[in-house]
Amino acid sequence: MVKAQALKFIYTFCEHIPPPQLPEYATFVTAYLTADSNVVRSYAAATIEKILLKKNKETNTQLFTSETTNMDFINGLLSKLCLLLKEE
Question: What is the reported pTM?
């Protein structure tokens, strides 16, 4: 329950997280994609989606692009997603 509430908090206040810290948050939240609770997994997925789609307020461009995103993060995210798809 606490994990779900923490993820909900990050999701709700994502707009207030400074852009340089977003990759850290995204990496942290990715770990919860494989949680036992469906609620935790759902909040983790929604939070990651919101973080990845966040735009720069000044230039209205995506913050996460192929040029700005650490490929280790993307590989880890895709690996976890593939594991989840195999489970279903």
Answer: 0.80
Domain count of the fold of the chain = 1
Q: What is the pLDDT of residue 88?
A: 62
For residues 29 and 51, is the Cβ–Cβ distance under 8 A?
Answer: yes
Residues 64-74: pLDDT tens digits?
Answer: 777 777 777 78
| Phi/psi at 55 (5° precision) | -110, 155
Give Cα 72 to chain centroid, integer Å: 14
Of the candidates 48, 9, 2, the one whose C-alpha atom is nearest the C-alpha of residue 25 is: 48
